[in-house]
Amino acid sequence: MKIQAVRGMQDLLPRKKKIFRFIEDKVRDVLDSYGYREIGIPVLESTDLFCRLVGEATDIVEKEMYTFDDRNGDSLTLRPEGTAGVVRMGQERGLLFNQTQRLWYAGPMFRHERPQKGRYRQFEQIGVECFGMAGPEIDAELLFITYRIWQVLGFADGVKLELNSIGSKACRLEYRNKLVSYLSRYRDALDQDSLRRLDSNPLRILDTKDSATRDLLKDAPVVTDFLDRESRKHFDGLKSLLDQRQVPYNINGSIVRGLDYYNNTVFEWVSNDLGSQGTICGGGRYDGLVEQVGGRATPGVGFAIGLDRLAMLLEDHCETSSECDIYVASLGKIGKEKSLLLAEDLRVGLKNIKVIVDCTEAKLKSQMKKANADGARLAIIIGEEEATKGEVIVKHLETGLQSQVSFNSVTDYLAKALPEG
Ligand code: ATP
Ligand code: MG
């Protein structure tokens, strides 16, 4: 019987992985330019962490976690998201009290959902978390960052920002009651999930995809009508900053986010080009979260970008550079040896150069075919005759011109032949 990949786990073939790398490089540059620092968080955490921080009545904890007992009988969970781990780490390592932090991480997340286009059981996120800043300025900075990322990646026109405020805990409680009493009048018309959530997590009903329930929601109370003074001030401050920077947004009362920990600002960036799995980034403010891991009240705000969906957007028009500048072809045993050794010299002597050595016994013609297929600009050919004479042939693949160059002067010759960049 063949052994196959686990359902929902993606294999990233070189071309796909290259797009991921391209995205990561761009995102990293943007984050560097804002002074954000990268951290690494474990892939495994104690199951309690997610139950407590993400919330028992969320999709993630209710049905999506990969949870198992390890050999000691401790319950561990493959991280379904990054924020809980970052908060745990920040508290445990003393990064939070009386400090400001701008942090980011990248890596795989795991959720047991139904696999489909743009939805996998292992997927990649880049996440950003900021601590110690309570005002709307940092919320705006995060939205500027995301907008910059879309611009740098070249699809800012095809995405829109859905923005909402769910206010403080107090106003959310008041809103929750109003929403429950409104929806309770239509119990019979609610879908099964929403009916269940009416008791456990009614705000999540706003997220429903069920069309009958969606119809009911059209006349439901709206959370922004229940914001207290402070929450309203925060939200107005954020909107004003977005306006001044001309970042377009749409106020969307049904954005509540799936996780329990948010307050005030919540947002999603949605692409027009991905169908129903269109959300490429989600985030918001979580001022109460640090207390939940035993720390002192610390404001926090963050977002996570789903790289798999970005990669789908870029698949067709992502210009990635070729793997190869110089292809070294050779014939015969001495030729092969020399070619491998010469390539080492080239990588040391020439800056940022990509050299591939042909390590096959193939005929010269098919080695040159490979050089072209790999996108090389130059080929170096070391036949048996050249090898014994201490020479190589350098061939410009575009023009077909070639010259004999002595072994010792190849690096200098190539430094001139390959202008930087
Ligand atoms: P959705 O509503 O699509 O399930 P979510 O609200 O569960 O998204 P978040 O927890 O906000 O997602 O994660 C942030 C981003 O990570 C999402 O916007 C999305 O781009 C990506 N993401 C989430 N779940 C998956 C998945 N199963 N496969 C691929 N990407 C995902
Ligand atoms: Mg989800």
Tell me about this structure.
The chain has 421 residues and is α+β, with helices and mostly antiparallel strands. It is elongated, with a radius of gyration of 28 Å. The chain starts with 13 loop residues before the first helix and ends with a helix. α1 crosses α5, α1 (14-33) crosses α11 (307-314) and α5 runs parallel beside α9 (229-244). The chain has helices at residues 14-33, 47-54, 59-64, 83-92, 136-153, 169-184, 192-200, 211-217, 229-244, 289-292, 307-314, 332-349, 364-373, 384-389, 410-417; strands at 37-38, 44-46, 66-69, 75-78, 101-110, 122-131, 159-165, 250-251, 263-271, 279-285, 300-306, 326-330, 355-357, 378-382, 391-396, 402-406. Bound molecules: adenosine-5'-triphosphate (ATP) and magnesium ion (MG). Adenosine-5'-triphosphate binds at residues 81, 111, 113, 118-120, 123, 125, 258, 277, 279-282, 304, 306, 308-309.
Tell me roughly what share of residues is in helical segments: 25-40%
Hetero ligands: adenosine-5'-triphosphate, magnesium ion
Strand count, sense and closure of the main sheet? 8 strands, mixed
The strand count comes to 16
Oligomer: single chain
What would you report as the Rg, rounded to the nearest angstrom?
Answer: 28 Å
Share in β-strands: 15-25%
Mean pLDDT: 94
Give the overall shape.
elongated
Rounded to the nearest angstrom, the distance between the terminal CA atoms is 49 Å
Which strands sit side by side, in order, in the main sheet? 1-5-6-11-10-9-7-8
Number of helices: 15
Structural class: alpha+beta
Low-pLDDT residue intervals, each spanning 5 or more residues: none
